[in-house]
Design a protein that fits this description.
The chain is an all-alpha fold. The chain has 2 domains: 3-50; 54-116. The chain has 3 helices and no strands.
Length: 117
Amino acid sequence: MNEEEIIIPVLGIMLPIIITLGAFIMIVYVRKFENIERMAIIEKGLAPDLFKKERSTSGALRAALLLMGGGFGLLMGYWLDEVFNMREVAYFSMLFIFGGAGLGLAYIIEEKKNKAA
């Protein structure tokens, strides 16, 4: 057997395991250092209110409208491909147009919400 024939399957099995373990260890250490930082701030006598994070729905709204726009864009691309035989141009153009429209709509909704608050 060639050395290359042995290495490739081993990498195919080990790489996902190594990436998963690395991500898990990274999350554990980030949480550990956040905790150490909080304890140091509390020991200095500062208020623990600094740790409260305000929940923002802007990321979820942006992602939802982007994905909805992308889905509608793919649907319109399929329709254009079937009716006008446009091939790949229809899919990519409609995906970008409706995805951008979804992000624009998310921006408008966020601006209205910020003005109301």
